[in-house]
Design goal:
Radius of gyration: 15 Å
Number of helices: 2
CATH topology: Thiol Ester Dehydrase, Chain A
CATH superfamily: Hotdog Thioesterase
CATH class: Alpha Beta
Structural class: alpha+beta
Length: 119
Amino acid sequence: MEGKKVSESAVILAQVMTPQDANPAGNVHGGVIMKLIDEAAGVAAHKHARCNAATASIGRLDFHEAVRVGDLLSLRSCLQFVGTSSMDVGVRVEAEDLLTGEVRHVASAHLTYVALDAC
């Protein structure tokens, strides 16, 4: 198999956070962010392997700041290590206040995926 550049599997997902994503205080639930992290990392793993991949573990997930309703959440995922069938994926999560343009690093995660099919 020929090697790939990290940039070939990198993914950026973006989504505006809405009231349905948040608690009564207006902060986005951590579980909503976790789901988006898993989606972004899963797409990068699938894109790299060119076959189905499943989450094997979440090695680390750190929340740095709260995300508010109305923020544009951007999730940047890329492969950090590739084995025979497993892949380590890093995700950086940023929130942008669309009114002020302020961008904050709100979370970071490290996940492991395994390829499911013969690739």
